[in-house]
Give the backbone structure.
Amino acid sequence: MFKRYNRIERIKGSIVQLMADDIFLGELASIKMRDGRSTLAEVISFSGERVNLQVFSGTKGISTGDEVRFLGRSMQVPFGESLLSRRFSGSGVAIDGGPDIMEESIEIGGPSFNPARRIIPHRMVKTNIPMIDMFNTLVSSQKIPIFSIAGEPYNELLARIAGQTDSDIIILGGCGLKFDDYEFFRRYFEKSGAIEKTIMFIHLASDPIVECMLVPDLALAVAEQFAIKDKSVLVLLTDMTAYADSLKEIAISMEMVPSNRGYPGSLYSDLAAKYEKAVDIEGSGSITILAVTTMPGDDVTHPVPDNTGYITEGQFYLHNGVIDPFGSLSRLKQLVMGKVTREDHSDLSNAMIRLYADAKKARDRESMGFRLSEWDKKLIAYADIFEEKMLTLDVNLDIVEQLDLGWKILSTCFESRETGLKNTWLDKYGQWPK
């Protein structure tokens, strides 16, 4: 039997408060309004019998005498192969005009995967972007953010990765997207053919804020089911700062004591609960999470990127339209570089970044009017080619092609002895004249 109550004590913002017993956190409730309409709400906190409900569609039209019926279950989302190529709202409702999903439903927001079945990551996630594959390799089950600021092409980067990755399933979770961004993803996926293996959960900036909080859980719950069925799943989330802002807004509505810059004290736990869903499952599939985190004012000490950095395994810094080779880091790349990839991968990438760092110093000397040595001129010429061939996000090359291109660039700009690479690699892979 459903528990029913017809006395709402308080309405504030999108939150209603009432007295109820024997309910649980995350339980769904249906509120029936006097005009016959119904809306869903979710239990977000309680103290004793005092319960706070977050109303999905907002509290407009709700009065204190409306009936509240608790459903005895938490938020669920359908799961099955029929979700592929479909688009859903932050509440799991289809928004693409297609038929209703008739698959079995699964609950969202559960605990992370059983640690006993987790294994050390050993598979590379290909993106065909050199600044990721060659220099900061993405590894299956890795959780890694893209730190950026508003105006940078982070959504374009996510779309390119989705269109070029070798992952079996792509799940996009959009939090607070502008309609133009949503349309960009839709058109890009359809044009690239990635739509056939993509599922989209989209919360627009104009949608109810509670749906923004649900998007990561919806995406990750579906990802986990596919991973159990031996699929490699790449989850793309944008923007986790919008997700954190939704938590902040709810906390303010509930008059909770704020923490750093008004965010709730549970921010770290809330973010960790999402990122810890990344997993490589023994004898089965994997979940890899790549999530945009915008930094207001380009401030990496802002609470959202600051907390994210303690949870994740590296970061990609997106500045001036490129992935910064000096600020970016994949802490798991050594698990696959030279092991899954070609043996010269690690030494070659390190040498190229070292030479590019020297080239930046040579450019500084040039800008200050110092006389340049022949070595400085070589470095500057190298930097120009490196930026054109490697740094740009438009490049689409397999990892072997990237490594071969790296050797070609070095042979164009330097003598073999100037690279600092060992003779074994120079003899086997170098492209200098014999």
